[in-house]
Amino acid sequence: MRNLSLDNITEAASSSFAGLTDPRRRHLVQTLVVALHNYAKDVQLTHDEWRDALAFLHRTAAMTHDSRSEFSLLSDVMGLSSLVDLLGSAPGATPGSVLGPFHTAGSPWRDNPVNLIGSNAGHPVVLRGQVCSVDGQPLPGATLDYWQNAANGLYWQIDPSQPSDNLRCRLKVDTEGCFEMATVRPVPYQIPTDGPVWTDLVQPAGRSSWRAAHAHVIVAAPGCRSLVTEIFDAEDPYLDNDAVFGVREALIGEFKPTTDASLCQRLGLGGDTCLVMQLDLRLAALPAAD
């Protein structure tokens, strides 16, 4: 097209992707083009602002590598990750929450029950629960991919003193869909403040850098939609001001004292008392094939 103008450039750019053969991908790309063009028109985007935005994306890419995604953090602080989680949450299932920038594939498989404490400082706690369908039927084929921060607030990717398998694992539930793990109580921490997401975007807005204390888990089972979610501590002070909009009421649990000596012994904890949080996780079935 030779005679491009403000009146026809959006349609021209969108139509140029009509050759994408996958219908969903074609819809996603063309809709994004229209949205970006409309945004630029609405705010009357200048050349300097456009160049600044591209430079920000270049800096974001430079901070991204196999064990850290600055782009994931960008999505998180914009609330986009949380919005996608909410859009993907099925009625009756445990709601999703943000994946975060510190998930790494390939966590070691551990036996269930598992003790992850090792040499970690912190307050020992037990997380236990059952993976079920939305109607309460146990899912014995379920697996968990679990990770959390250490008592210093850091994940292993940004703390050279921690081994790469620290406080993370994959495990299989038992025949009743149940699991148990001993770990240390997660603590609040700041989102990374050494990259452009913080220095160029969040800090200038005067926003908090703190995440409410939580643990991450990805739950999968045959015939079910996978769940990416977080579990929050009811006593945490940042539940109402989480930096990445991840908190859901249904994901807040309480650590309660128990005198179940057999539980403590089974998980290799000293004494006969411990703090326990019950995590009942419900997965929605995959949609029926047409």
Span from first to last CA? Answer: 41 Å
**3D shape:** globular
Q: Could you list the spans in which at least 5 consecutive residues all have pLDDT below 50?
A: none
Widest beta sheet: strand line-up: 1-5-2-12-11
| Total number of distinct structural domains | 2
Second-tier CATH architecture of the largest domain: Sandwich
Strand content: 15-25%
CATH superfamily caption of the largest domain: Aromatic compound dioxygenase
Helix percent reads 25-40%
Helix/strand-derived class? Answer: alpha/beta
Query: How do the helices and strands follow one another from N- to C-terminus?
Result: HHHHHEEEEEEHEEEEEHE
CATH domain class of the largest domain = Mainly Beta
Q: What's the helix count? A: 7
Q: Give Rg in angstroms.
A: 22 Å
Let me know the number of strands: 12
The average pLDDT score comes to 94
- What fold name goes in the CATH topology slot of the largest domain? Protocatechuate 3,4-Dioxygenase, subunit A
What does this structure look like?
There is one protein chain. The chain has 290 residues and is of the alpha/beta class. It has seven helices and twelve strands. The protein has a five-stranded mixed β-sheet with strand order 1-5-2-12-11, with no helix packed on it. Strands 4-3-8-9-10 form a five-stranded mixed β-sheet, with no helix packed on it. A two-stranded antiparallel ribbon has the order 6-7. The radius of gyration is 22 Å and the shape is globular. It starts with 8 loop residues before the first helix and ends in a 7-residue tail after the last strand.
